Amino acid sequence: MTPEELTGRARTHLKPAALAGAPMLAAAPMPAAAPMLHAHVVRPFENLQRAALAAGIELEALSTFRDFERQLAIWNAKWNGATPLLDAAGQRLDTEHLAAAERIDAILMWSALPGASRHHWGSDLDVIDRRALSPGSRVALTRAEFAADGPFARLDQWLEQHAGRFGFFRPFRGVRSGVQPEPWHLSFAPVAEPARLALSVEVLREALARAPLGGGEHVRARLPELHARYVACIDWP
Question: What is d(CA 111, CA 92) in angstroms, rounded to the nearest whole number?
């Protein structure tokens, strides 16, 4: 991928994906545009969906490609206080007295830097089992939903057993990565791993150079450290 594709500033690597269902995220509705995936991910994900359906699971992607501007808006809303910041347990933080470094780390616990989101690559998706939802249910994408008593417990177990056969894995398990566990986040390794290795500090620095990023000067001063912890380091199968 080109630096622009790696950082969400181009769409030349993408293909529209015919993913069933309507957006139902409780906190952040998806854009109205057709969902997009990397051209080499569409077919593998369709194969994963078919296998899941045979097991009684209606696998649906709620979030696919996300561009730089969308990730920038997510970041700035959290930096400016328009969106709450959460601690590692998912509880709301009192941000009034947080130093810049603490605010940055709190955002990165749950959201990527613009230019550094794996969703930029079109290789990563946030998934649910639509069949497991009761009528009118809204999805929050929380760990509780994937816990043993949650609606997506069966999906969690099925992905653990079968996702790897189709090239997918879950990069955020809370073991090595600085990002909190995201059992809903799937990544297609044959596309995502080359992208992760290609997204260097220099590529990310160039993408952020002129962006109106909240806390930008603090982020840029720490960029090698943040890249090492939140971009380069993932939970590999």
Answer: 15
The answer to whether residue 197 is domain-embedded is yes
CB 191 within 8 A of CB 38: yes
Instruction: Flag whether 22 is in a domain.
Output: yes
**Domain with 115 in it: what CATH number?**
3.30.1380.10
The percent of the chain in helix, strand and coil, each rounded to the nearest 5, is 40, 10, 45
Tell me the pTM.
0.90
Within 10 A of 82 (CB to CB), how many other CB atoms are there?
A: 9
Residue 25 pLDDT: 53
Range of the domain at 112: 3-232
Assess whether pLDDT exceeds 60 at residue 107.
yes
Q: How confident is the model at residue 188 (pLDDT cuts 50, 70, 90)?
A: very high
Residue 91 lies in a domain: yes
Residues 113, 46 contacting (CB under 8 angstroms): no
Count: domains in the chain: 1
Residue 26 predicted with pLDDT over 60 = no
DSSP labels, 12-54:
TTEEE----S---BSSSPPPSSPPEEETTTHHHHHHHHHHHHH
pLDDT surpassing 50 at residue 131:
yes
Is 237 a domain residue? no
